[in-house]
Write a structure and sequence with these properties.
- The chain has about 130 residues and is mainly alpha-helical.
- About 85% of the residues lie in helices and about 0% in strands.
- The protein has one domain (about 1-125): Multidrug efflux transporter AcrB transmembrane domain (Multidrug efflux transporter AcrB transmembrane fold).
- It contains 4 helices and no strands.
- Helix 1 (about 1-15) crosses helix 4, helix 2 runs antiparallel to helix 3 and helix 2 packs parallel to helix 4 (about 90-125).
- The chain is elongated, with a radius of gyration of 17 Å.
- It starts with a helix and ends with a helix.
């Protein structure tokens, strides 16, 4: 989802998706997945080991890894945004697109992922055996 959002924003702003976008897909996928894996591991730990409800498990995950996700995202956005100053256009586009992708990933992990997890867990209990 974050990569698709980043491509959409990029297409609206720049008007084309070129080689920089293809490179970003490969490079940013690891970072985007890493955020989600950390969140999910804390969420599942809260449910399995501590018996928390989906809502409480989301709160636990946000309280344990939330600040780390913010700090990591800010550092990555700052670092890749510095590439925007490059005179080599592909580097500038690469840096901006990765920064957009990281922001989209952070927003998805804080707003979309918890909502999806709670909805799935709520529906899991309602299904007939």
């Amino acid at each position: 989802v974050p990569t698709i959002v980043a491509f959409g924003v990029w297409a609206i702003v720049v008007g084309e998706v070129g080689l920089a976008a293809a490179t970003v897909t490969a490079c940013s996928l690891g970072v985007v997945v890493d955020f989600t894996v950390h969140f999910l591991s804390k969420y599942l730990r809260a449910q399995r080991e501590q018996g928390k409800s989906p809502e409480d498990a989301v709160r636990y995950a946000l309280s344990t890894v939330g600040s780390a996700l913010w700090v990591t995202s800010l550092v990555l956005v700052a670092g890749f945004s510095a590439l925007a100053l490059s005179s080599f256009l592909m580097n500038a586009h690469f840096g901006l697109l990765v920064a957009i992708t990281v922001v989209a990933a952070l927003l998805a992990d804080f707003f979309l992922l918890p909502t999806l997890l709670m909805a799935v867990d709520r529906n899991r209990g309602k299904r007939p055996a």
